[in-house]
Fold this sequence. Notes:
This protein is an alpha/beta fold and 266 residues long. It has helices at residues 2-16, 81-89, 111-128, 143-152, 169-176, 192-195, 216-225, 242-245, 247-260, and strands spanning 24-25, 41-46, 52-58, 66-70, 74-75, 93-97, 136-141, 159-163, 203-208, 230-235. Strands 2-3-6-4-7-8-9-10 form an 8-stranded mixed beta sheet, sandwiched between helices. Strands 1-5 form a two-stranded parallel sheet. α3 (111-128) packs across α4 (143-152). It is globular. 44% of the residues are buried.
Amino acid sequence: MIVLLTVGGLSFYMIMLEDRFIYFPELQVQQTPAAVGLLFEEHRFQTSDGIILHGWFMKHPSARFTVLHFHGNAGNISHRLSLYRRWHQQGLSVFACDYRGYGNSDGKPGEAGLYEDGRAAWQFLIDKSGVDPASIIISGRSLGAAVATKLATEVQPAGVVLETPFTNIPDMAAFHYPWLPLRWLVRNRFDTEIMVSGVHAPLLLISAKNDSIAPEFMAERIIDTASKPKRHVSLSGGHNSFDAVSEQQYIESWIDWVDSLDGSTD
C-alpha cells in the first residue's frame, strides 16, 4: 500500500507540473552573434495567436540555402552561437528564433504554441525576408526536432535535419521514469516518430551514440519510419556534446548532405 501511494503521489506531482519537466527557458539573452563575428539582423514577428517572437537572421552573401533552426528545450538562442557560426562558415544563411517564453520572446511555452512559433518563423522568412521556400532547410535539435518535423509536414522545404531527436514524450517519460506510469498520463506528445511519416523532403538525421537523454534507439525508430530520401549519421558523443566531440564528422555530414540536395537519391 505504501508503495502504491508513493507511486501515485509522485505521478500526480509530476503530471501536475509536467511542463516544468519539459521546458527550461532562460530569459536573459547573454550575447549576440556579433560575439562570434557574425553580422546579423534582429527581428520581432507575430504568431497567428498574437505572440511576439524574437529572432536573428544571419545572412551569408553567397548562400544557396537558409537554415531555419529550432533549438532544444533549455536556454535560448544566445547559447547556440557556435552552431550558427559553424553553419555560416559552410556558406549557409541562418535564421534562429526563440520559442514563446524563451529569451526575448513573449508568452508561455506549450506544445501547440511551439508549433505555432515554427509556422510563424517560416512565414516570416518567406513573407518578410523574401527567402525562397525551396531554399530553406528546416533544422531542429532534441525538442526542436519535433517542432521542425511538425512544420515540415505542412510546408515543402529544401530539406529537413533532425539532430538527437526523441520519438515522443510518452517514450521519454517511460525511459527516464520506468517505475512510474507516466507514459499513459502525460499531456504533451511531440510525437516525431509519427509525424515524420508526413515529411516529403530529403531528410538528414544525426544521432549521438552516447546519448543518455534521447537514446539512439529512438533515432533509429524515427529514421525507419521516415520516407526516402533519408540519411542517418551516428556520431560519437552525448546528447549535448556530439557536435563538439565529433566536430569534423559533424561538419562533413552537413556539407555532404547539403551538396546532395539538388538530386538526392539516398
